[in-house]
Amino acid sequence: MANILDYVHWRGDLSFLQDQFNILDNLIFAKLAYIDFKDAVPEYPSQKKILARTAMNKVFETHDKEKMVLGLIVPKRIVDLMDLVKDTKRFGRIYMSNYVNIIEKETRTQFSAVVFHLDEDTIYIAYRGTDDTLIGWQENIDMLYTSPVKGQVLAVKYLEDIADLYPNANIYLGGHSKGGNLANYASIYARCDVQDRIIRCYTNDGQGMDKNHIDLEKYERIKGRIIRIIPELSVVGMIFDCFAGRTIVVKSNAKGVYQHDGFSWQIKVTDFDLAKELQPKARKLDRALTKLIKEVPVEDKIVLGKNVYDFILASQLDTLLDCKKESIKLLKYLNKFSGRSKQLFLQLVSEFLFF
Hints:
By secondary structure, this protein is of the alpha/beta class. The chain has helices at 4-11, 23-32, 52-62, 77-85, 89-92, 134-142, 150-165, 178-189, 192-195, 216-222, 280-295, 298-315, 320-325, 327-334, 339-353; strands at residues 50-51, 95-104, 109-119, 122-127, 170-176, 198-204, 226-231, 246-250, 267-268, 271-272.
């Protein structure tokens, strides 16, 4: 069974001029956005660019690739992917720019993005999904009851700023998980002149959005250019309402929630290996999550968000890896959650992990 690593072996020797951008390239860029490119890629906002191969080699100069860990649940194969693509004509010889990574406990914000320059006239904006930081997971909880969250606001500004820095560029954008949500949101709320330059927006198993918080007129302008890609047993991608013109269901060789990992998605040369439809278990989970999210009063969701935020501040833990090392501290603090918050928290976790 083949995945995007095989695709790099098959097509890595072909530049984007020789073989045009495709949906698998999108997933590769979305995955590479999880890499910390600090001090390797020029920071946002700037018109400075760096050869992708050079940037990736800089990362490996300061990080032992054998010991690089992106987090408790972020797959280490992303490091293998970067190590593979850096020496290819297709990915290593393009340019990168405008890396940004914002982690702010005070504003409950986790936002990161980077730009890949496919050629002089085409860019791909890659938004990072939820990383290993607790504040990133806090923002996911905040999405249950408020819109927009700070990351979505920053995603729109980033898109518009990049479009202004490169006024002649056609734009692809996308991301995996929450990164897909950010790309989706940004494409809908970008200025009309920027929106008109978007070729495609890809949300790779990214959560949807509450239809009560979406400007449907703005959405209709871009709808036909938004593609949602979900595995046949999608979990994250089934949260909230879908705001995409087209949904693609792909085959995965993983089980349950682990199908969220894009490396499990099966491919055929330059496209995904498509499934006929979502599996019944995915639809069942969708109904359960929708019922849970919609039936819980907003007040309870707000209290849950506050309880989690208080834990982040009081525990002085920053990442999921920290929580794993300090599991006793996590369990003790969970007991301090209000009764309804604790129940809701455990319900959400169980729906995701044990469906």
